[in-house]
Amino acid sequence: MKKLKIASIPGDGIGKEVVPAAIDVLKAVSEIHGGLSFEFMDFPYSCEYYLEHGSMMPEDGLKRLKDFDSIFLGAVGNAKLVPDHISLWGLLIKLRREFEQQINIRPAKLLNGVRSPLVNPKDFDLIVVRENSEGEYSEVGGRIFREEDEIAIQNNIFSRKGTERAMHYAFDLAAKRNKHVTSATKSNGIVHSMPFWDEVFKDVAKNYPEIETDSQHIDALSAFFVTHPDKFDVIVASNLFGDILTDLGAAIMGSIGIAPAGNINCNGKYPSMFEPVHGSAPDIYGKGIANPIGQIWTAKMMLDHHGENEIGNVLLDVVECTTADGIMTPDIGGKHSTEEVTEEIIKRLKEKA
Ligand SMILES: NC(=O)C1=CN([C@@H]2O[C@H](COP(=O)(O)OP(=O)(O)OC[C@H]3O[C@@H](n4cnc5c(N)ncnc54)[C@H](O)[C@@H]3O)[C@@H](O)[C@H]2O)C=CC1
Ligand SMILES: CC(=O)C(=O)O
Ligand SMILES: [K+]
Ligand SMILES: [Mn+2]
Asked: What are the residue boundaries of the Isopropylmalate dehydrogenase-like domain, all occurrences included (predicted)?
């Protein structure tokens, strides 16, 4: 029996609704699989934890998490309790960095039964490889002077190693898919980091003669996500560009509530972390209507990561049968609750056994 030790961090807001839902689904996955079991341990790290303890996680938090096979996270952020930059940098971004999860992979494709807001979305199936450890998300900079003289400086960090790593990841992924990589750039407006990004892209591409490439400025690329999403296979993007593009990717799928993501540690030293693209959605928290599919699809990515693609594909098929039959939360046009959708997915999974 293969056993995966999973650290679960529901975090804030709807994270506390969708993580338990997805864990119930994973327990059903284990039942029908027969040779796979999970040991979940819950960690309460969140903005409420911060109010009580003065930090988003304990001093030895990283040590407590580091020996798990994966981390399964919901969302972080409750701006009523803790400013967002403090909560995110104290937990989500801290884990991404300390555990060297340098790549964030975020697929976007149409699910059966889920209506895209695009009039003619065609059959898009793309994946964004987002650099996850540097770029525009940087602590370098500062603020000086006061009032009308105040100045804020935010430096972006682009290392050759980090940039190459993300690009190699994207090319390797494209080799297993439709053999096309698009680079998200902005070298017409950003004069140091983005021309550098373009140069590294050209250099890395030379190692993959069988992969087609193109390079698009992020503004035009955003527009193409709306007009021709079916033209893309793999897109490689910096931390911020990838962040923005993947909410857009989620939107054209039909809702940010269904988009999954994986923060991948590539060197095997630390666990990878799986969390949906969406945040804590304070506007719907407590209403029981959060879409659990983003978190459940994220669980599928965690299964894939541990070599369980076969059961992962079964799980996504079951999710699609459920949406195809109209059993959905209100964000994608349904009338059902988080719990009803989750129960239906579990019921259908068990019917597969
Ligand atoms: N990775 C993370 O943990 C992230 C955390 N955040 C944090 O979350 C908080 C809220 O941020 P927002 O910018 O409002 O983004 P958000 O993703 O939480 O919500 C944006 C909109 O999408 C809806 N939505 C999100 N997830 C949904 C789901 N599963 N089902 C149905 N509807 C859903 C929300 O109701 C809201 O209208 C902030 O504190 C922010 O910093 C935001 C993005 C990512
Ligand atoms: C913070 C955020 O929005 C993200 O990492 O996706
Ligand atoms: K999240
Ligand atoms: Mn985001």
From this structure: 5-345
Protein residue with least CA distance to atom 6, ligand 2: 243
Considering the entire predicted model, what is its pTM?
0.98
Cα(153)–Cα(148) distance, integer angstroms: 15
Ligand 2 test: best mutation among 243, 274, 280, 298, most atoms within 8 Å of CB?
243
- Which atom of ligand 1 lies nearest, measured to the CA of 92? 3
Decide: 243 in ligand 2 pocket, CB within 6 A: yes
Give the nearest ligand 2 atom to 243 CA: 6
Domain extent listing, the chain: 1-103+260-353, 116-253
Tell me what the pLDDT averaged over the chain comes to. 98
User: Is residue 353's pLDDT more than 90?
Assistant: no
The topology (CATH level 3) of 116-253 is Isopropylmalate Dehydrogenase (3.40.718)
Does 259 sit in the ligand 1 pocket, CB within 6 Å? no
Total length of the chain: 353
| DSSP per-residue codes, 67-135 | TSSEEEEEE---TTTS-HHHHIIIIIHHHHHHTT--EEEEEEEPPTTPPPSSS---S-EEEEEEE-SSB
Task: Give the model confidence (pLDDT) of 8-20 as tens digits.
Answer: 999 999 999 999 9
Nearest atom of ligand 2 to the alpha carbon of 277: 6
Q: How far is the CA of 88 from the centre of ligand 2 (A)?
A: 9
CATH 3.40.309.10 fits 1-103+260-353, yes or no: no
Give percent of the chain above pLDDT 90: 99
Judged by phi (left if over 0) then psi (alpha if -120 to 50, else beta), residue 66 lies in alpha
- The pLDDT tens digits of the residues spanning 38-96 come to 999 999 999 999 999 999 999 999 999 999 999 999 999 999 999 999 999 999 999 99
Nearest CA to ligand 1 atom 43: 279
